[in-house]
Amino acid sequence: MPHLNPLEKSHSRRKFLGTSALGVMGFGATNISRAVDKSSTGRPKKSVIYVFLSGGLGQQDSFDMKPTAPDNIRGEFLPISTATPGLQICEHLPMLAQRSERWSLVRSLSHTYNEHSQGHMVMLSGQSKLPTGFDPSRPKPTDHPSMAAIIGALLPDSGSLPPAIVLPERLIHRTGRVVPGQFAGVMGAHREPHFLAASRFNALTYGAWPEFGFHHQRGGELDKSLKFQTPILAPPKGIDATRSDRRLQLLEQIGGVRPLLDQLHETDALERYQSRAITMLSDPKMRELFNVTDAPAEDLDRYGRNTFGWSLMLANRLTREGVGYVQVNLGNNETWDTHGNMYPNLKNYLLPPFDASLSALLDDLHNEGRLDDTLVIVAGEFGRTPKISLLPSAYALPGRDHWGAVQTMLIAGGGVSGGQVLGSTDKHGGYPTSDKQTPDNFAATIYKTLGFSRNAHWYDLSNRPIPLFNGEPIPLG
């Protein structure tokens, strides 16, 4: 963990807990009032749900289909019409097709990286350039901070809940590689995002388990040992999750949680999580809020009784309660990394739960009158290659490889009108041909939605001010 600078050393660990999380690194109340536009309640006027498809969804097989391209480009799926005249998407997204008046597409989001960790870094931090000394095999304290970390530092608290939450799990590859880009980096360990660890890391099953659990090579699989359980606010990286989970036992030991937490004085960062966990568990409404697996049957039918459905249902509940930013990682182990067996896996295990859960989220936001105040963005770390390929040593059927040059992003709500398409790609869906957008513009769109001023800054561990905006918001009205 990076050494604390003199400013931070002057705060005792107890004083650290007693100080506003916004004041420790120079974010006093005056600075925040200028940085973000708030309602009279102190909450941001709008919220953001970032649905992150780790692994990378192919644009040609979802939202930018090329039906007139050669066989080895267009693929097996057929396009279907949406409720918007002239707009077509994949046949395996029928529910979203019916709701196209609620969402729009950006078909020209582009960066230069074709490796997973690099793509995660730029798409989770919203910065197109990799940090100095970047290591794709592990997070480093010199990394860019994630948007979740920055927003968590800049937004005011929303009562019992953190202002920014990542769920249902940290992004960890099946090999045990912790994916960089998710953490606080140069902001310091005490600024790590709040990870709501509802789903424990597993190295076997991918996708929306248990209903749609699968393996990229073997097809459908069900691991009955997996559980979706909340709330468990995970400690920062470097704190052993198994050890802290065993001590905390948040659900089973509410009455005795304070003395258990008091035993864990290992870092200031962990104390931050302790304090938040105690605050959350002191509110009797929190248990009901997080208990999505026991939601009414009609809601579970709409969202799906699986990790995709539970996660997006929880994201809706959290933003309803005032959380400003929720990042939803749809898929462990880089689930959307469809190098092979792509078409049966997308058709049978990935697109159906994605279609249902995202449609249910948009329905609820619309029906509750909150869609205009909640921006929903769907993207991955990159798109996939125009040309279909086969790796016969690993897969029986073909797929597509990594492709940072372009991906399609879905945007809904937050004041954005539905039924729009911004940007275009060439005839093979390989490169932007108009309105090219970058991760910096993507991040600027999120920051603008949350009401941050264009001259807002975040601060690194040395208390240096870093401009929040590095790009222009994507021009969708």
How many extended strands? 19
The outline comes out as globular
Rounded to an integer, what's the Rg over CA atoms?
Answer: 21 Å
Main beta-sheet annotation: 9 strands, mixed
Mean pLDDT metric? 85
The helical percent reads: 25-40%
Give the number of helices: 15
Q: Give the percentage of residues in beta strands.
A: 5-15%
Strand order of the largest sheet: 9-6-5-10-1-11-14-4-15
| Cα-to-Cα separation, first versus last residue | 43 Å
The tally of structural domains comes to 1
- Structural class estimated from helices and strands: alpha/beta
Protein name: DUF1501 domain-containing protein
InterPro entries: Alkaline_phosphatase_core_sf, DUF1501
Organism: Thalassoglobus polymorphus
Give me some keywords for this one:
477 residues; alpha/beta; 15 helices; globular; disordered N terminus
Write the layout of secondary structure elements.
Layout: H1 6-9, H2 13-18, H3 29-35, E1 47-53, H4 71-74, E2 79-81, E3 88-90, H5 94-98, E4 103-109, H6 116-125, H7 147-154, E5 164-167, E6 194-196, E7 214-215, E8 219-220, E9 233-234, H8 241-248, H9 257-262, H10 268-281, H11 285-290, H12 297-303, H13 307-320, E10 325-329, H14 342-367, E11 374-380, E12 383-384, E13 402-403, E14 407-413, E15 421-422, E16 424-425, E17 432-434, H15 439-449, E18 457-459, E19 465-467
Parallel strand pairs: 1-10, 1-11, 4-15, 5-6, 5-10
Antiparallel strand pairs: 2-3, 4-14, 6-9, 7-8, 11-14, 12-13, 16-17, 18-19
Helix pairs in contact: 13-14
InterPro entries: Alkaline_phosphatase_core_sf, DUF1501
Pfam families: DUF1501 (PF07394)
Protein name: DUF1501 domain-containing protein
